[in-house]
Amino acid sequence: MDKIQEMLTFIQSSPTCYQAVDTIKKELEKEGFIELNENESYHIEKGKKYFVTRNYSSILAFKVGQRLNDLNYQIVASHSDAPSFKLKPKNKKNNSGFEVINTEVYGGPIFNTWLDRLLSVAGRVLVKEENGIALKLVFIKEPVCLIPNLAIHMNRGVNEGVKLNPQIDLLPMLSKNKDFDLMDIIASNCNVNKEDILDTDLFLYPVDNGYVWGDNKEFVSVNHLDDLQCAYTTLQGFLQGGHEDTISVYCCFDNEEVGSGTKQGADSTFLMDNIKRINAGLGLNEENLQTALASSIIVSADNAHSIHPNHPEKADPTNVVSINEGIVLKYNANQSYSTDGLSAAIFREMCKDDSVKFQTFTNRSDERGGGTLGAISTSHVSILSVDIGCAQLAMHSALETAGTKDTEMMITALEKYFSSHLVRGAGYQYKIER
Ligand SMILES: [Zn+2]
Asked: Tens digits of per-residue pLDDT, 42-73?
C-alpha cells in the first residue's frame, strides 16, 4: 500500500482522539515499542523504545539512542482531536415524531458542512466491571444519524447565508421509532450490557470515504486532515529516523481544538513529566536534564491554510502557501506561532533533502489567525520551537483537502529531522550531525 492510501486508512481508523491514540499505539506495538504506564515506575534503557498514553486520548512515544553523547531531545507534536459534536448525557425528544440526539459543539467546526451528510458515533464508554471500571472504545461504522437541511422552499434565504443555531438547527435525527435507544447500538458495538455503561465520551463523525483525486492524483480529501495528516506523517518520519545521540520523541496531544488546557493537552505537564522521568530513568541528574534541554528542539506540526482558489485575496500578499508546494513554516510576530529565525534556520538544515521544499506562511497583517501547539508546549518545555504543517483547504470542514506530494515531503523531512543530531556549541553556534 502506498503512503497516501496508508494515511487514508490511518485517518479513517481514527474518528475521535481515542481511536487515533489506539491506531498510533497499534503501529508502535508492531514496531516493538514497550508500553509504560504513568502509574508505574519507568525502567529506561539506552537503545530501546517506549510509549505512554494519558487519558487514552494523548500519546507520547520515544526512542533512546545507544550512545547519547551531547544528549538532547528532538521532539515532534501534533494533535489527535478534531472539531465535532459531542453527545450530551441525555437524549432529546421533540414534537416532530423523530428521535433526535442532543449534542454540543466541540471546537470550531464549519457548521454547514455537517448538514445532509451521513454521520455516525465514536468515542469511548466507561463500563462497570466486577472489581471496578473499564474503558471500552466505541466505533460504529454504519451511519446512524443525519442533520437535514431545511428545504429551500421553507428557507428562501438559504443561499444568502443562514445562521445555524447549534441547539436548534444542528441536532441530528436518529429514528422514527420512539423506543429506539442509541445506547443499545453503542453497548452492542463494544460488547457490553447497556445497564453496565456508567458514562460516555462520544462524538459524531462523518462516515464518508476519503479520496485521492485530481489530474495527477495530487489531492487527498477526507475528514480530520487537521491534524491527522501531521499525526500520521510525523509518526512515519519518527519511526524511520533516529540518531544514537538523541532521544527522539513523538507526541500526539488531545484537546488542541479547545485550547489545550486539559490534563492531557499540550498545555499540561504530560510532555515535561515524561522528559523528567526519562532523564531519571537513565540515571541522569537535574543538571544533565537542563544541559540536554538547552540544545533540544520541538516541532509543532499542525496544518496550515493553502491559498484558496476563489479567494486568493485572503492570503498574505507575499507569504502565500499552496497545496503540494512544500512544508509550511508558520510565523507570527506576536508568537501565536512559536517559530523564530533561529528555530526555522535550524529546522530547515536538519530536514535538508533534495525532495523537500519549504514555504513560509504568515497571516495577513489585518487578520487574526489561529494558534497552535508550539507556543503552548514551550511554556512547559522551554526549548527551541518551530511551527510547521501541510497546506490544506477548508480547515474544520467535515471534508478537508490537502496534497499528496506534501504528505510524502513531510515524511521525508521528519525522517531527516530525527536522523540528525543538533549539538549546541559555544554561545548560539549550532552543529548538525548526521
Ligand atoms: Zn489543527
From this structure: 999 999 999 999 999 999 999 999 999 999 99
Grid cell listed for 412: 521525508
Instruction: Say how many Å lie between the CA of residue 220 and the centre of ligand 1.
Output: 17
Cα(224) to ligand 1 centroid in Å equals 9
* Concatenated DSSP letters of 162-198: ----TTTTTPPEEES-TT--HHHHHHHHTT--GGGEE
Task: Given CATH 2.60.40.10, say whether it is the number of domain 84-206.
Answer: no
Distance from the alpha carbon of residue 79 to the mean position of ligand 1, in angstroms: 7
Q: How far away, in angstroms, is 431 Cα from ligand 1 center? A: 31
Is residue 10 within a helix (H) or strand (E), and if so which, with residue range? helix 3-12
Q: Are 275 and 391 in contact (CB under 8 A)?
A: no
Element spanning 86, H or E: strand 84-87
State pLDDT tens for residues 363-414.
999 988 877 888 888 889 999 999 999 999 999 999 999 999 999 999 999 9
Angle value at C-alpha 371, between 293 and 417, nearest 5 degrees:
40
C-alpha cell of residue 5? 492510501
Q: What separation in Å is there between the alpha carbon of 173 and the centre of ligand 1?
A: 29
- The segment(s) of the chain belonging to CATH 2.30.250.10 are 84-206
Q: Which CATH superfamily is domain 3-82+223-433 in?
A: Zn peptidases (3.40.630.10)
Q: What's the CA-to-centroid distance between 152 and ligand 1, angstroms?
A: 33
> In angstroms, what is the span from residue 425 Cα to ligand 1's centroid?
34
CA distance 171 to 90: 13
Distance 402 CA to ligand 1 centre (A): 13
Closest-CA residue to 7 (of 400, 420, 434, 426): 400
pTM of the predicted model as reported, rounded to 2 decimal places: 0.97
Query: Cα(229) to centroid of ligand 1, in Å?
Result: 10
Ligand 1 centroid, distance to 233 Cα (angstroms): 14
Longest Cα–Cα distance of the chain, Å, equals: 74
Please list all protein residues whose beta carbon sits less than 5 angstroms from ligand 1, which is an ion: 226-227, 302
Per-position DSSP letters for 105-160, written without gaps between them: EES---GGGGTT--EEEEEEEEEEETTEEEEEEEE--S--BB-PPPPGGG-TTGGG
Query: How distant, in Å, are the alpha carbons of 28, 138, 186, 301, 340 from that of 191?
Result: 26, 10, 8, 36, 50
CA of 336 to the centre of ligand 1 (A): 13
In 3-state terms, what secondary structure has residue 411?
helix
